[in-house]
């Protein structure tokens, strides 16, 4: 388990150093290609000029909304986009000012945990789990004399004495 955590940490660090950032999809505008709560990995090094019709890009719409949609047309440096599940194209074109990057790969549904952890109940539950893991890691262990297996102190194992009677 520790090895898996270390490998994941190295992979995430490498992605961040390469300027490939994860974004959780919270709407169904790109279904079925990108399901709700998927994580899109967006290459922020990909230049807007390298984008072609059919590419999926991320951009800012307005002050704070982050959108991931497919490019449907390119005219004079203005990129028209549309969500695969939407009936109409987006009203504002993407330009260098609001472009973030190109989606390079997607992992479906793993964003569910991130969405949950952004809620108050998710943060509280995560804190409780972390505290419990920390507390249990400090419970001393001892070896069972017969099996050689480690058992947590305070765990009682009934031993049969020769004076005990079978019912």
From TrEMBL:
Gene Ontology CC terms: membrane
Source taxon at top rank: Bacteria
Record's protein name: Signal peptidase I
Location(s), subcellular: Membrane
Enzyme class of the recorded protein, top EC level: hydrolase
Main location class: membrane
Species, as recorded: Ruminococcus albus 8
Alphabetized PANTHER family for the sequence: SIGNAL PEPTIDASE COMPLEX CATALYTIC SUBUNIT SEC11 (PTHR10806)
Pfam families: Peptidase_S26
Domain Peptidase S26, residue spans: 4-65
Keyword terms, alphabetized: Hydrolase, Membrane, Transmembrane, Transmembrane helix
Residue intervals passing through the bilayer: 124-141
Entry EC number(s): 3.4.21.89
GO BP of this protein: signal peptide processing
Any one GO MF annotation of this record: serine-type endopeptidase activity
